[in-house]
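Same chain as my last thread, 457 residues:
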Amino acid sequence: MNKKLAVRTRIAPSPTGENLHIGNAYTALINYVVARKLGGKFIIRIEDTDRSRFVEGSEARILESLAWLGIKYDEGPYRQSERLELYKKYAEELVEKGHAYYCFCTPERLIQMRESQEARHEPPRYDGRCKKVKSQKLKVKSEKYVIRLNVPDEGTTTFTDLIRGEITFENKLLDDQVILKSDGYPTYHLGVVVDDHLMEISHIIRGEEWISSTPKHILLYKFFGWHVPLYAHMPLLRNPDKSKLSKRKNPVWVSWFREEGFLPEALVNYLATMAWAFPDGRDIFSLDEMIREFKLEDIQTTAPIFDLEKLKWMNKQYLMKKTPQQFTALVSTASVYSGTPQFNNIAAGTATLFQPRIDTINQYDSMAGFLYDPPKTYEHSINKEILNISRRALENLSEWSHDAMEKAIRRAAESMGMNAKDVFMELRVAITGKTVGPPLLETLEFLGKDKTLSRLH
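reply #2:
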């Protein structure tokens, strides 16, 4: 990467979904890191020109998710819907230069054209009919139209991708893309080029699905006589079965991960490992550490697998690093018991028991709820005869400690010819309602003798 450039990166999400897509968050992270690494600016632009798919409130949710992740933008948000006159001006400039033309084809005619191409096994592309229409300006006054890019029939268009190297396309295979729609809104191709130029974006870092569109954008830069920015196309995130990450198979909205109790720093850390590796090979590192070590050219082109189980593991590592007070503050945002008088004391006092045993803060209540409310249901029926062994052993204890309880229960089980393991299990189910949970005797230490015996009775 050239440090002499005035570095300006951007993310340009469309407000057409429920929230910020995890793929967009991944791209935003890389753009943010490149800007911080090279002392530049990170910009956000809302590409809201697809009015048919516009979702009310989506922009606010996108910005909220970026803020939650700690990805802070320096400028914006700019909105394409507020810049329509600019796009019209530049589209008409291209028409004047002969690099674009008005197209008056009806939707019916375009459908018929596509069907004929399919029947001949030809790739779908505009056939250039309106390119030959004379007196276009007269027809513009009376007929509905779009403006199309006039792609040269000969030659090639080449660009160098910072991740993938040199990529070349034959111009004859490129479509005469619509750049201005009949409603006056630009398509992605015109809007992105005009905005990236006017906003002086130096690095276009986006998903690999846009590689095929890049030659059209390069042509637009050349037609306008503008400087062409640097391009880098990131590999797309994949499901474990290697299919494209989609909401049909997996959660894809950043808001879902927040609601499920993942920590933002853990999610950012995991996204950072998707196509890039920390130089010393470790998995856990901070955003600041990533900025210090990151190089865009080190991005791998192999599609990374987004593994929810690996993310849960990483989230647990972050939870385990929290102090009892920090852990208490985190689980308080998800726990139904957070309003109870004893919540802070209980959560902080037992933090070390639960931090290694939950993946997300949302799992806290199902694991620790028995501390606040005695269980009302049990995972299996209690064998009272076995339970009485531990109850009698605990009643006679003068010292309420882990070691004292363990010795007493083992002695009692042995004297009754019972397996101590079975006795401990009945005791666990009676106290917690479950067969699996935090260390039993440490839990009883915290509950205290009176509460423990009360539950056993």
